[in-house]
Amino acid sequence: MTASTTTPPRSLDDPDVGERYLRLVGDGDEYGAVEIVTALLDNGADPARVMLDLIARTQSRVGELWAANEWSIAREHAATAISERALAAVSARSAVRPTRGRITVACVDGEWHALPVRILGEMLRLDGWRVDFLGANVPGPHLVTHLHQTGPDAVALSCMLATRLPRAHAAITACRSVGVPVIAGGPGFGPEGRWAHRLGADAWAPDAEGAIRRLAREWPPPIEDPYRTGFLGDDEYTYLMRHRGELVQTAMTRLTAAYPPTGSYSRRQHDSTLEDLGHVVDFLAAALYVADEQVFTDFVAWTAAVLEAREVPPVALQIGLTLMRDQLRDYPAAIAIIDAGVATLRR
Q1: What PANTHER family does the database record attribute to this sequence (predicted)?
Q2: Chosen domain end from 145, 180, 215
C-alpha cells in the first residue's frame, strides 16, 4: 500500500501529518499530497493553518534537507512544485470575496523563490484583499507599469536572498515614486527587516501573518520623499559590479595553486566552485551596498555549513575569500568585510 492510499489525516494535530506530507512531496506523490490537504479541509481545518503549519513549514524543511546534502536540488524543485499544487488546492477550496483594498504581490527582479510569496498572496485573499500575484522575478519597469494600470493600495515585495537588495531597492523607490507604499518581506531583507528600512520600504513583516497585521494598522502610511533613500552604493560597490567576471575568473585561476585538491575536480565540481566564487562577489557587493558586513558574514556561515555537508573543508572557502581579498587591496571597505567573513569562519 502506498503512502497516498493510507488513511488521510483528520487534523493538523495528528502527530505524523507533517512527516507524511514531507514524505509524499519528497517521493513526487502529487496526488497523495493534495489528498492530505483536501482531507484536512474536509475535516474542518483552517485553510490558513494548512498553508502555514503544513505547506510552508514543510517547504522550510525541504530547504534544510537540500542544505544538508540529503536531498538533491532536483528533488527539492520537484517537492516545491508539488507544494504549489497543494497550495492551489487549498486556494480553490477557500475563496473569499474581496472586502478590503487591492494589493500587488511580487518577487523582486532576480528572485525566483515564489512559493513563500504565493502563500502570502493566498493569506491576503483569505483576509479579504484583492490580490494581483505577479510571481517570481518581476523586472522593476514591468512592476511599475502594472501599478499604473491597476492603482493598488500597496505592494508586497519578497526578497529571499540579500544579493537581490540593490534590485529590491530600485523596485521600492520606483513604487513609492508613483505613490504606492511598499511592505517588504523575506530573509533577504535581514534580521528584523533592517535592510528593508534602509532601502526605504514603508513597512516590513517577518511572515504572512505579520504582513496581515501590519496592513490592518494605519495603512496606507504617508509617503515621504521616495528618493530620500534612493541612492546607495559607492565607488567600491560599482567597481565590484563592473569587474565581477574578472574577479571570479582570476580567483578560480589562482585557486588550483593555493588549494591543490581543486586540480582533480570534475567538471561539475569546477562549475560549482566557480558559482560559489560568484556568490562571494555578489554577497560582498550587497554588503557594500547597504554598508553592513552582516550580509556577508551570514552568507559565509551558511555557505560553510553547506560545503561541510558536501565534505568540502572550511579551509577551501577561507582560501577563496583570501584570493578575492588579494584582488581588492585598494578597496578598504571590501577588505574589512572579507576579513569579517574570515573571522566568522575561524570562529
Answers
A1: METHIONINE SYNTHASE
A2: 215
Q: Is 135 left (phi over 0), alpha (psi -120 to 50) or beta?
A: left
- The amino acid occupying position 23 is R
Take residue 153 and report the three cell numbers written for it. 493600495
Q: How many CA atoms lie within 13 A of 8 on its CB side?
A: 16
Q: Is 288 within the bounds of a domain?
A: yes
> Range with the lowest mean pLDDT among 5-19, 252-266, 281-295?
5-19
203 with 106, same domain? yes
223 domain-assigned: no
Smallest CA-to-CA distance from 231 within 287, 172, 155 is with 172
72 and 116 in one domain?
no
Domain that holds residue 341: 235-346
Please report where in the chains the cell 517521493 appears, as a residue: 27
Measured torsion, CA atoms of residues 196, 198, 201, 206, in degrees rounded to the nearest 10: 30
Grid cell for residue 333: 571597505
Q: 222 in a domain, yes or no? A: no
Q: Buried (b) or exposed (e) across 79-113, using 16+ Cβ within 10 A?
A: bbebbbebbebbbeebeeeeeeeebbbbbbbbbeb
From residue 191, alpha-carbon distances to 53, 63, 203, 294 in Å are: 22, 19, 14, 10
Task: Specify if 29 maps to a domain.
Answer: yes
**Average pLDDT value for residue range 64-68:** 95
CATH assignment at residue 35: 1.10.1240.10
Measure CA 257 to chain center: 35
Compute the average pLDDT of residues 175-200.
94
Q: Does residue 12 sit in the same domain as residue 88?
A: yes
Final residue belonging to a domain, choices 46, 69, 92: 92
- Which conformational region is residue 13 in: left (phi greater than 0), alpha (psi within -120 to 50 degrees), or beta? alpha
Q: Which of 53, 118, 42, 46 is nearest to 80 (CA)?
A: 118
